[in-house]
Amino acid sequence: MAENGTQSKELTPAQIKAVHAIVAARDVRAAAAACGTPERTLHRWLQSDVFKAAIAEQEAFIVDYATRRLLLLQDKAIDVISGVLDDTKAPAGIRLRAALGMLDTAIKLRELRDLEVRLTALEAALLAK
After folding, report:
1. What does DSSP assign to residue 25?
2. What's the rounded Cα separation, in Å, for the pair 3 and 18?
3. For labelling, which of 34, 37, 69, 80 has a CA lying 20 to 30 Å from the CA of 18?
4. CA atoms 42, 57, 121, 114: torsion sign
5. CB of 25 closer than 8 Å to CB of 34
6. Rounded CA separation 10/53 (Å)
């Protein structure tokens, strides 16, 4: 958003501050208090496509950041699941849930990877036309 310059040219500093407040707050009233902008003004700004796009961009940045953090933890998570699966003293129900969770996740990851490959191929085909 403002940090990378894509929306900052179209938003005022007050709007940029409001975008951050909206993303962080539980509702418009709390966001208005946090950024010092009247609630009515925020509601008006929320009708703007540029303002809504800036909010969506900031939310995507937050999700991307969380995803990167989760990816850094994946080895630890896999080690925990592996430890539970290998622990013959753990109750069978816990080991079964760990195994099913691992298999479900593996299948979802495979499906997402397959979709990504197919989508990339479709995009390349569309660009080639």
Report:
1. S
2. 14
3. 69
4. negative
5. yes
6. 11
Q: Give the whole-angstrom CA distance, residue 55 versus residue 62.
A: 11
What are 10-66's pLDDT values in tens digits?
899 999 999 999 999 999 999 999 999 999 999 999 999 999 999 999 999 999 999
Is 0.90 surpassed by the pTM of this model? Answer: no
CA atoms within 13 A on the CB side of 6: 11
Which amino acid is present at 44? R
Residue environment code for 44-78, b if the CB has 16+ CB neighbours within 10 A, otherwise e: ebeeeeebebbbebbeeeeeeeeeeeeeeeeeeee
Q: Which two tokens stand for residue 51?
A: 């303002």
Token duo for residue 18: 């409001």
CB 87 within 8 A of CB 73: no
Cα 33 vs. chain centroid, distance in angstroms?
25
Amino acid at site 56: A
